[in-house]
Amino acid sequence: AEVVAAAAERGVNLWRADDDHVSVACDEKTGAAELRAVQAAFGVPERDVDVESTADALPAELLRESGYLTHPVFHDHRSETAMLRYLRRLQDKDIALDRSMIPLGSCTMKLNASTEMEPITWPEFAGVHPYAPVEQAEGYLELIGTLERWLAEVTGYDAVSLQPNAGSQGEFAGLLAIRAYHRASGQDGRDVCLIPSSAHGTNAASAVMAGMRVVVVACDADGNVDLADLDAKIAKHRDALAAIMVTYPSTHGVYEESITEVCAKVHEAGGQVYVDGANLNALVGLAKPGEFGADVSHLNLHKTFCIPHGGGGPGVGPVAVRGHLAAYLPGHPLKDGSLVGPVSAAPHGSAGILPISWAYIRMMGADGLTAATEQAILSANYLARRLAPHYPVLYTGRGGLVAHECIVDLRQITKETGVTVDDVAKRLIDYGFHAPTMSFPVSGTLMIEPTESEDLGELDRFADAMIAIREEIAKVASGAYDPVDNPLRNAPHTAESVTADEWPHPYTRSEAAYPVASLREGKYWVPVRRIDQAYGDRNLVCSCPPLEAYED
Ligand SMILES: *Cc1c(COP(=O)(O)O)cnc(C)c1O
Question: Which CATH number is 378-524 given?
Answer without folding.
Answer: 3.90.1150.10
